[in-house]
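Feature request disguised as a bug report, sorry. It would help if multi-protein outputs had a clear separator. Right now it looks like this:
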Amino acid sequence: MAAYGCITIENDSLVVADSVLLPADAGAIASGTVVSTQILDGTDLVIKESDESDSPAQKFDVQFTFSGITGNPVICLFTGRYQGNAAHDVWLYQWNYDTTAWVRVTAASDDFIHSTVDESLVFTLNHTADYVSAGEAKLRIYHNSNAVLTHRLYIDYIAIVSETLTLPVAGTKYKIVGLNDSPSHNLVVNGTAGSVTLQSNGDYEHSITSSFRGKGGSTVTCVLFVNGIETVHLFHRKLNDAGDVGSAGQSAIRAFSAGDILDWRFSSDLNDSFMSVDTMQCTVIKIDEEFGIRR
């Protein structure tokens, strides 16, 4: 009896800014638009600390809005530079929708250090539900030192990465849920619960492929659970210090019984970890007993 099914994620966990705002008396745009920040191409949004005719100069306060975020914001990716004074402080903030206040992302003395060349920076954001509302999040780059007319902030690229699955405790395996149902036959797919339920005994090919980011320096492990019991490790993926995007997967054939419930769980070797999934496919196909082929 032919049987097959799949649960999937097809999503872009990376979102670029769709608007930029400088409040009154908070610097000015020298060149570029928010579109200049959406592609890493050497075309910058350039912020000056005031119009040259203004006196005194104004500290810049650059506020970005990001829309279409599907999970809590977890990473900010930035390429550009603050070209000004090594003793000046430029800080990154997030908007807290619960307290309606800007909150600093780091405790560092300076988030954007003076440089004459572009740098690529990765910031771990405050990733709770307080920092997103109806798929919207906001970031702010604020100059906290005395303004100087000739100083500039160059932004080639800025983006937010949202998390799909939180992995707060190292070694603990967390079930991935909230997937989509793909076509199925003679088994039950439940993407919302992250599970596939088999309807007949037999040999099945089960596979998982995924492209995702995560906490820098962590190793993410995927495990197949059957009826709530850990059954087999499917893959390990080591991420670099920037939590780079990459793929991992596994495919195998195993014997299962009618009524078996399969789900996929993930763990990290570091506390306070996460996965930001762009694509994932968890597929189950029954092998034909008579011909030894997938049916």
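(second protein starts here, but nothing in the output says so)
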Amino acid sequence: MRAWCPLVAAAVARAADRAEAAVFPGVLTRSPRLRAVLEDLARIAAFDAPILLTGETGTGKSLLARQVHAPSSRRGGPFVHLNCGPSPRS
């Protein structure tokens, strides 16, 4: 494990160097499709309105929600995360 960790760290550092500058500092991507989504989210962050992010489990919705909240006008208030998946549906 000790020999493997430095190799992984170096690979992650190289990937971060190759990734395009992200709209949100916590998200690195070279995907044009994700880049377009991030740019849309950056524009949405300027509005004083709640947002709903949907998608499959494990796709990073919470990460993106926090990234949108950080530069928004609501950044001084609480970040409210609601997992709607287990909520009962009628």
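Even a blank line would do. Unrelated, but nice: Residues 7 and 13 are 10 Å apart (CA to CA).
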